[in-house]
Amino acid sequence: MAGIKTIIGLSFILAIGFLLVILSAALFKNYLTLLVVATYVIAPLPNWICGRAANPDDFMESSGSGVVDFGRFLTGFFVVMGIALPTLLWHANSIDGGAAAMSIFGGLLIYGTIISFTLFFQEDQEF
Amino acid sequence: MSAHRLFRFPKPAWINSANARTAGVYTAGALFSLGFYLLIDVAAWSKSAMNPSDPPVHVTFVDWIPGICSALGMLVINSIDKSRLSADSFSYSGNGVAWKARLVLFLGFALLAGGLAGSVVVLVLKYIVSDYTWPTIWMGVGNVIANGMVMLSSAVLWVAQNMEDEYTYNLAL
């Protein structure tokens, strides 16, 4: 059961994630790494939207699962994009290696928080 | 069913589970993303200060054509409903649906293979034949890897969708 401690811990991790990403942008005076936050914030959206669009109850109709699969495909795309984008910018010498590492780590923390929140929230809804 | 088995080892049970299918679709998306961002990386690196080539060698539209072909092929392949491939074996779905599906699928596979082959052609003709050294050749090598990733992603997605069909089939019976 998701108690108050879980919520406090998750918000703490979220704050650390944002701190890392913002530091990676501000320390090096290069604000391209803020793109990572946008990436991880929109990463779970396709799953939610396509989950609403499809009817999970009919097994005979294959059109519904196609939409759900497309949402999952897009989610996988965005998650790897959050790692690939800083690496790409570092490789093209747009940002420093340290900024890239900090933004990747911070972005993963943010995304992990979002996913954990969804998990706990869904568990609450089922009961 | 087990009497018709061809191979000595049975197919592991987890292959047909819904979780394996979901993981396959996520993996396909991740692989496609890797390929796509490798292409973007090659283009960004080409215009950045890291590109040491002198006289300057840059990515042109020629380098993009294989990637576009691969992505189109993947789109075509995965737009086809896989159950239509065997549609002609049922008497009620005539009009050559399976024939059309196979034709479109063939086009898709041709685009995909053409993309991979085209990237190798670009690597050889534009970078290796001209005797460029390593950091410049990365623009060709990255292109080949990117197209391979898109192909791999397409294969994973194909397998995952076929898994889903068998899973649904087992459930329906």
From TrEMBL, chain A:
<feature type="transmembrane region" description="Helical">
    <location>
        <begin position="7"/>
        <end position="25"/>
    </location>
</feature>
<keyword id="KW-0812">Transmembrane</keyword>
<feature type="transmembrane region" description="Helical">
    <location>
        <begin position="98"/>
        <end position="121"/>
    </location>
</feature>
<dbReference type="GO" id="GO:0034424">
    <property type="term" value="C:Vps55/Vps68 complex"/>
</dbReference>
<feature type="transmembrane region" description="Helical">
    <location>
        <begin position="70"/>
        <end position="92"/>
    </location>
</feature>
<dbReference type="InterPro" id="IPR007262">
    <property type="entry name" value="Vps55/LEPROT"/>
</dbReference>
<comment type="similarity">
    <text>Belongs to the OB-RGRP/VPS55 family.</text>
</comment>
<feature type="transmembrane region" description="Helical">
    <location>
        <begin position="31"/>
        <end position="49"/>
    </location>
</feature>
<dbReference type="Pfam" id="PF04133">
    <property type="entry name" value="Vps55"/>
</dbReference>
<dbReference type="GO" id="GO:0032511">
    <property type="term" value="P:late endosome to vacuole transport via multivesicular body sorting pathway"/>
</dbReference>
<keyword id="KW-1133">Transmembrane helix</keyword>
<keyword id="KW-0472">Membrane</keyword>
<protein>
    <submittedName>
        <fullName>Vacuolar protein sorting 55</fullName>
    </submittedName>
</protein>
UniProtKB/TrEMBL annotation, chain B:
<keyword id="KW-0812">Transmembrane</keyword>
<comment type="similarity">
    <text>Belongs to the UPF0220 family.</text>
</comment>
<keyword id="KW-1133">Transmembrane helix</keyword>
<feature type="transmembrane region" description="Helical">
    <location>
        <begin position="60"/>
        <end position="80"/>
    </location>
</feature>
<protein>
    <submittedName>
        <fullName>UPF0220-domain-containing protein</fullName>
    </submittedName>
</protein>
<feature type="transmembrane region" description="Helical">
    <location>
        <begin position="137"/>
        <end position="160"/>
    </location>
</feature>
<keyword id="KW-0472">Membrane</keyword>
<dbReference type="Pfam" id="PF05255">
    <property type="entry name" value="UPF0220"/>
</dbReference>
<dbReference type="InterPro" id="IPR007919">
    <property type="entry name" value="UPF0220"/>
</dbReference>
<feature type="transmembrane region" description="Helical">
    <location>
        <begin position="101"/>
        <end position="125"/>
    </location>
</feature>
<feature type="transmembrane region" description="Helical">
    <location>
        <begin position="20"/>
        <end position="40"/>
    </location>
</feature>
<dbReference type="GO" id="GO:0016020">
    <property type="term" value="C:membrane"/>
</dbReference>
